[in-house]
Amino acid sequence: MTRYANIPKPIRSGLVVVDPERGTPQRVIVLQFNPDTLERSVSPQAAGGEGDGGGGGSGTGDKNEALRLKGPAQESWKFTAELDATDQLDVAAPSGIHPQLATLEMLVQPSTAQLREHSRLAKNGAVEISPIEMPLTLFTWGSKRVVPVKLSEFSINESAFDVNLNPIRASLSLSVKLLTISDLPAGHRGAELYMAHLAQKERMAGVAAPGSLGALGLSTADMGR
Questions:
Q1: 29 and 104 in contact (C-beta within 8 Å)?
Q2: Hey, which bits of 8-131 come out as E strands?
Q3: Gap between the Cα atoms of 138 and 149, Å rounded
Q4: What is the pLDDT of residues 168-181, one digit of tens each?
Q5: Alpha carbon distance 80, 173 (integer Å)
Q6: Which of 49, 134, 143, 145 is the most buried (most CB within 10 A)?
Q7: Residue 225 clears pLDDT 80, i.e. is over it
Q8: Domains identified in the chain, total number
Q9: Domain-located, residue 125
Q10: Does residue 218 fall inside a structural domain?
């Protein structure tokens, strides 16, 4: 037993539901296994808009916008999570992985209380009923990636069941969109968390080993000097 005592316990990725007013965690969802891959897609918000400046005849205004950004890049992450009741549970699981699946699904579902309140307002003749707000959700991938997200796609493949047809093994494909200051109102807790994530990225870029023109077979003369 002492031979492996100093091996660090692996950090798990997961989701945290946060109170947007107080910033306190309301629910922590730890993924049972860390996904094998994390697919990230980053699209810059160019000031000129996609496709501007092409096809000839672009004006001076378009050229002035070529290197300008109108906001943070739009970023989405995709990953696959695995759930397995035969591996994850230290206690009996009479419902299989139903509770774990339900916890994730409730991130994109209004509660029964919210639906009843909407119905009550409608019956009372409310002129305008605000859409139900989703909880502020953070996706965490270690301490250097804690980002506010919105679940944009969520598919479940249940692959094994117990004798009562409770799912005991499933694969979940999740796609999340990172929420930036372009998506949230000023002063929103999620906007502050995004700025903290961007500041972390800036720090990481600052400690990256610098390259050299020589490694590219170039000199300052090749750069127009």
A1: yes
A2: 14-18, 25-30, 39-46, 69-84
A3: 6
A4: 999 999 999 999 99
A5: 4
A6: 145
A7: no
A8: 1
A9: yes
A10: no
What the block records as the tokens of 21 is: 């007013």
Q: Is residue 106 part of a domain?
A: yes
CB 14 within 8 A of CB 138: no
What radius of gyration, in Å, describes the C-alpha atoms of the chain? 24
Confidence bin at 3 (pLDDT 50/70/90): low
* Long-range CB contact pairs, 109-113, < 8 A, 24+: none
Can you say whether residue 96 is alpha, beta or left, with left for phi > 0 and alpha for psi between -120 and 50 degrees?
A: left
Cβ–Cβ < 8 Å for 177, 122: no
Predicted pLDDT of residue 37: 95
- Within a domain: 81: yes
Look up the domain containing 195 and give its range. Answer: 9-44+70-202
The residue type of 28 is: V
Tell me the three state secondary structure of residue 86: helix
Q: Which of 55-69, 96-110, 144-158, 202-216 has the lowest mean pLDDT?
A: 55-69
Per-residue pLDDT for 150 more than 90? yes
81 or 7: which carries more pLDDT confidence?
81
Helix, coil or strand: residue 174: strand
In angstroms, the Cα distances linking 170 to 33, 84, 140, 157, 198 are 12, 7, 21, 5, 33
